[in-house]
UniProtKB/TrEMBL annotation:
<keyword id="KW-0808">Transferase</keyword>
<dbReference type="GO" id="GO:0005975">
    <property type="term" value="P:carbohydrate metabolic process"/>
</dbReference>
<protein>
    <recommendedName>
        <fullName>Transaldolase</fullName>
        <ecNumber>2.2.1.2</ecNumber>
    </recommendedName>
</protein>
<comment type="function">
    <text>Catalyzes the rate-limiting step of the non-oxidative phase in the pentose phosphate pathway. Catalyzes the reversible conversion of sedheptulose-7-phosphate and D-glyceraldehyde 3-phosphate into erythrose-4-phosphate and beta-D-fructose 6-phosphate.</text>
</comment>
<dbReference type="InterPro" id="IPR013785">
    <property type="entry name" value="Aldolase_TIM"/>
</dbReference>
<dbReference type="InterPro" id="IPR018225">
    <property type="entry name" value="Transaldolase_AS"/>
</dbReference>
<keyword id="KW-0570">Pentose shunt</keyword>
<feature type="compositionally biased region" description="Basic and acidic residues">
    <location>
        <begin position="365"/>
        <end position="375"/>
    </location>
</feature>
<feature type="region of interest" description="Disordered">
    <location>
        <begin position="351"/>
        <end position="376"/>
    </location>
</feature>
<dbReference type="InterPro" id="IPR001585">
    <property type="entry name" value="TAL/FSA"/>
</dbReference>
<feature type="signal peptide">
    <location>
        <begin position="1"/>
        <end position="19"/>
    </location>
</feature>
<dbReference type="Pfam" id="PF00923">
    <property type="entry name" value="TAL_FSA"/>
</dbReference>
<keyword id="KW-0704">Schiff base</keyword>
<dbReference type="GO" id="GO:0006098">
    <property type="term" value="P:pentose-phosphate shunt"/>
</dbReference>
<keyword id="KW-0732">Signal</keyword>
<dbReference type="GO" id="GO:0004801">
    <property type="term" value="F:transaldolase activity"/>
</dbReference>
<comment type="pathway">
    <text>Carbohydrate degradation; pentose phosphate pathway; D-glyceraldehyde 3-phosphate and beta-D-fructose 6-phosphate from D-ribose 5-phosphate and D-xylulose 5-phosphate (non-oxidative stage): step 2/3.</text>
</comment>
Amino acid sequence: MRLLTASSLLLYLRAKTAALGLPSPTKISTTGLKYSSFGSVWRPISASYSHGPQKMSSSASADPPTTQLEQLASMTTLSIDSGSLTTIAEYASTGLISDATTNPLFVSQAAFNGDPKYENMVSEAVEAGIAESLEESKQGGAQLREDLAVELAIERLAVILGREISRFVPGYVSTEIDPRLSFDTEASVMRARRIISAYDRAGVPRKRVLIKLAATWEGIDACRILEAEGIRCNLTLIFGFAQAVAVAQASGTLISPFPGRILDWHNVAAGRPAGADSAVDPDADDGTVCVRRIHSYYKRHGHETICMPASWRPSRGKGFELDEIRSLAGVDRMTIPAPLLEALAESTDPLPRMLTSDGGYPGRNESRDEQEIGEHICPNGRRMMSEKEFRYMMTMDGCANDKMAEGIRAFVSETIKLENAVRIKVQEAMKAVVN
């Protein structure tokens, strides 16, 4: 049993009353309210709420407008980006969130801080990693066994985390390949197969698992191999159109373009104010424009690859944190952090669909898009993009080239932090085994 915030419960009640055809509550009292866990589903035991003032007509009462979160969920599948399983559970209980992503580094840090739930997850991962390393490195020395144990423990921690998330959300869970392998196709494929086997043993259907790879040429090539084997892939660090098309041609399940980081780069390159001081019209936001073009290209040319943008910035600066999300309403999927989901839940303004299922969007210029694509990127897979074409187009796209390298460096930095934290646990456990 634990206390529940009013905002989280309000999300839940709005979803449930909407499903029953009842008016959405606008106010809620949580005095004495607690949550009870029944298996993997979180349900409120009791609550009192009101629908607030309603305008009456001679024929019928008018329902208050639904929240922007509800409106967005009706046209775009939503994923929550959170480091907390508790937060994921709360939002998943609303029925508005289908997928989730989180970071194993958060789990290891929480374990070091004494959270028993996460301590147990890390202990389980370390135990499995050591056991498997002893089996795989019988001919190697102590250092080899330790390095392999750390590598396997990190993988198992990611799978354990994915297993727990899968109990809250009905959709995809993503597990990342070590970003230091971003330029190694063979090693990436080997790791992906090992991770999927671990998910099989954990009882999570592989159709629900996305292997997350950086959208380098080698990562996309690994995606091509894995998708042919029935292993689904999420290609991340998408900053350019060439990457998006190459992934679609490789039959990737999903891409994660980062509109916020694209805007960051263009603001700096153009000498415009950035971050909280940004002052760009949402329809001219470089990140929004890029994602709209990708979405349109996929729909118009029959690609089944899912477009799921993540990483958001305020186009118009502080106070307009939802600009990019609202400008991309209607895209296949979105990954959104909890604070922005909360902001959407607090707004009842109308949220129009900006992207249509046939590829339409405001300001679309089909002839311009096709001219820019040219001979290098062919619709309907008539000719696959070659490696040399991909590398040339990435080099000529300053944003994609710079932000890809920056993103890999950031991911590697986080991975090293995780590795160092897990190594301490592995060393402690190995000493206990020896003694």
